[in-house]
Amino acid sequence: MELVNLKDASDVVSFSQAVKRGLGKHQGLYFPTAIPKLANIDTLLEKPFVERSIEVLHALIGDELGDGVLNEIVEQAFDFPAPVEKVTDKVYSLELFHGPTLAFKDFGGRFMAQCLSRISQGKPVTILTATSGDTGAAVAHAFHGIDNINVVILFPKGKISPLQEKLFSTLGDNIHTVAIESDFDACQSMVKQAFDDPEVREGLHLNSANSINISRLMAQVCYYFEAVSQIPEEDRDELVFSVPSGNFGNLTAGMIAKAMGLPIKRFIAATNLNDTVPRYLKTGEWAPKATVATISNAMDVSQPNNWPRIEALIERGYLDKACLRGESVDEQYTQMAMRQLAQSGYTSEPHAAIAYRAVSHDLQEQEKGVFLGTAHPAKFRETVENVLGQPISLPKALADVAGEDSLAVDVAADYEALKAHMFSLLKDK
Ligand SMILES: *Cc1c(COP(=O)(O)O)cnc(C)c1O
Fold first, then answer.
1. pTM (2 d.p.)
2. Domain spans, the chain
């Protein structure tokens, strides 16, 4: 696979290089120089998830990882299902929250971890990341127990829910969690400082594992194929996918699947009040506002970092602009959608409910809708219980960690203190 930096056409790399680097020169995103069109979609759709995903990823990535390696990676990364549930006559839900941390980020995180462990070939790597909740858990679980890769996760002490904290801070082994005595912005700025510090960057072989890594997108393409494969054939002719969006990685992956020939008629970019993209699609003007806090907090993003990849898909002629519409859903309609879903017998959480609302009132006569369920409702238990007025039970993964002790170490919001802590943990590893 060959990828080009969208900000510098002379920066062309392989898949392995793009996975290791994350971002290219001038902070540019990597984008495939060619997206393959698949000829055998109907046959592919009949295959089981893992076998089909290997074929889809092989078409994208090629042979560069070596014989049989891609198969191993996919088998180890995709060891949980992505079921489609029929919610109403015209609308389905693609449930992406049956992985170890109950969020769709498990797909990308686990695939990236497996890729990086092969690509680094036993050389030590340190993943350093800051989290305000979900990403940290997905990264921690994905890399837990992988040889030669150490993970350091910073989070703002006392500022995330105890259950969220336990989902990544009870693992131990190669997963090191650090409670910073400050807020999320302070955590992020300490991560930035570390990447700018050659002693740490080179001494500990830092990698960020963040959401712009190309391996995550490649993994996410696979579950769009899985969704279509589970929808009854008579409902497949005019499918509309509604994607709850924050940084727009999920939507980018869906649009790549369409570019490869997967029969999807169009997409809806569903956002909360942070509506930079829906406004842009209506007015042609890119005008981000200050980020506002909502109950769908994983989508509180006003400058989505994957957007240039969607522009590239359109500008390079893979997809027509008309196949994407934007829709912003406010807090009141989000809650209404959650209640409507509950009345149809389907318990949901705010992110998925936004996508449901966006698609259910936009469908035309012949169309069928699919919205992406990006997190398990129990991950947003308080909000869900408040809105629906009834208790919901914890799934096993959350119930299991609730009783365990956090292994996080407190560190002051001081870069030198963090650096000393990291070297004490990792210098001989
Ligand atoms: C990360 C996240 C999103 C947003 O996905 P993007 O790929 O960043 O657009 C939506 N819902 C949940 C629950 C998330 O954790």
1. 0.94
2. 81-102+214-394
Mutation to probe ligand 1, out of 97, 161, 247 (largest number of atoms < 8 A from CB): 247
User: Model confidence over 323-358: pLDDT tens digits?
Assistant: 999 999 999 999 999 999 999 999 999 999 999 999
Contact assessment for residue 116 and residue 139, using Cβ atoms and an 8 Å cutoff: no
The CATH label, of 3.80.10.10, 3.40.50.1100, 3.40.50.620, 1.10.246.10, for the domain at 81-102+214-394 is 3.40.50.1100
Sheet holding 84-86, edge to edge: 84-86, 91-95, 368-373, 239-244, 266-271, 324-328
The closest residue, in CA terms, to atom 1 on ligand 1 is 298
At which residue do the structure tokens 């989000």 appear? 334
Which residue is closest in CA terms to ligand 1's atom 8?
247
CA distances from 342 to 14, 241, 354 (A): 46, 21, 14
pLDDT confidence of 210, banded at 50, 70, 90?
confident
